[in-house]
């Protein structure tokens, strides 16, 4: 199994009693060039997603040494099976609540507004669109 994956990579991280509600949430933004660029800027800047998920979205930032993180490694956003298994609402829930048992902390509203979180998620989805990573 590659970096950015754990044995339960396709297992939801949203608690069972909240997952149906989370799955019902839809991204209100369209993946326009402008919204994807804004999501990329947030991913690489204000939201500092690249620290853990890397510029390439594969789940291991350049400054992280393998074996130094506790719990599962950050998600590999280029994993098409994972992309297909998780809804935007589930990913938004994680940005609001963090992911128990991982280093993923809550980001909304402490760091990102809800609109910014949806923009980041548009960019995260772009990692699964092709075998190529999004442009730097």
Q: How would you explain this protein's 3D organization?
A:
This protein has 136 residues and is an all-alpha fold. The model is unreliable at 1-5 and 131-136 (pLDDT under 50). It contains six helices and no strands. Helix 2 (33-44) packs across helix 6.
Topology of this structure?
Elements: H1 19-24, H2 33-44, H3 50-53, H4 80-85, H5 88-97, H6 114-126
Summarize the structure.
The chain is built from six helices and no strands. It has 136 residues and is mostly helical.
Which key features would you list for this structure?
single chain; 136 residues; mainly alpha; 6 helices; disordered C terminus
Compute the separation of the termini in Å: 26 Å
Mean pLDDT: 85
Please state the CA-atom Rg, rounded to the nearest Å.
Answer: 14 Å
Major pleated sheet = none
Tell me the number of helical segments per DSSP (H or I, 4 or more residues long).
6
Shape: globular
The sequence of SSEs as H and E is HHHHHH
Structural class: mainly alpha
Low-confidence residue ranges: 1-5, 131-136
Q: Roughly what percent helix?
A: 25-40%
Strand content: under 5%
């Amino acid at each position: 199994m590659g970096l950015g994956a754990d044995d339960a990579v396709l297992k939801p991280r949203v608690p069972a009693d909240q997952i149906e509600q989370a799955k019902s949430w839809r991204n209100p933004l369209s993946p326009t060039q402008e919204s994807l660029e804004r999501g990329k800027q947030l991913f690489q800047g204000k939201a500092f997603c690249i620290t853990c998920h890397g510029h390439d979205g594969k789940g291991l930032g350049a400054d992280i040494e393998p074996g130094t993180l506790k719990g599962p490694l950050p998600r590999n956003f280029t994993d098409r099976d994972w992309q297909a298994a998780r809804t935007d609402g589930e990913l938004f829930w994680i940005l609001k609540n963090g992911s128990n048992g991982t280093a993923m902390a809550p980001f909304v509203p402490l760091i990102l507004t809800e609109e910014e979180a949806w923009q980041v998620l548009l960019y995260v989805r772009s990692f699964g669109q092709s075998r190529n990573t999004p442009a730097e």
